[in-house]
Amino acid sequence: MPLRSDWSGEHCPIRRSLDVLGDPWVLLIVRDVLHGRGRFDTLRDNLGISEAVLSRRLAAMTDAGLLTRVDYLDAAGRTRQGYAATDAAAELLPVLQQLAVWGERHTAMPRGGAHMAMIHEACGQETTQGQVCSSCGEVLTPAEMTWVKPWKHARDRLQPAGALLTQ
């Protein structure tokens, strides 16, 4: 049962955008796929999402043009299908980065948390903006971004649209 009306035919572009992106799982899945984590099991485990919910979201996101299916070989050498970001998903990078900036400014940091730095690899500097680098002014793309997550002891390089899965 849908939680709201269908807004796909609305004149307002914000409503149409929310018709595709309004479910919080969508942006979290895009985030993980941009990090190269587009395998079903990896998404399920990293997000803590049920298989049924993840399957529905992946199908809807593929239909909406955010994701594309890609083949990969599993540990046993069998061909499996995972997901890669499309250009439409890659264009959500500024939205994701602005959400991170907003979250750091306006939400309480949990115990054990730390600042997530977004590094523009082209200039080597941290950016505090989503769309253009606050240091050099260049437009930011996933292929040039690394997110440093101290609470995970991780330095994750983002993947460009269509990139093959790394995890």
Automatic annotation (TrEMBL):
Source species, domain of life: Bacteria
Entry keywords, A to Z: DNA-binding, Transcription, Transcription regulation
Residues in the signal sequence: none
PROSITE patterns: HTH_HXLR
Pfam family, one: HxlR
Domain HTH hxlR-type span(s) in chain numbering: 12-111
InterPro entries: ArsR-like_HTH, HTH_HxlR, WH-like_DNA-bd_sf, WH_DNA-bd_sf
Protein's name according to its UniProt entry: Transcriptional regulator
Organism of derivation: Microbacterium terricola
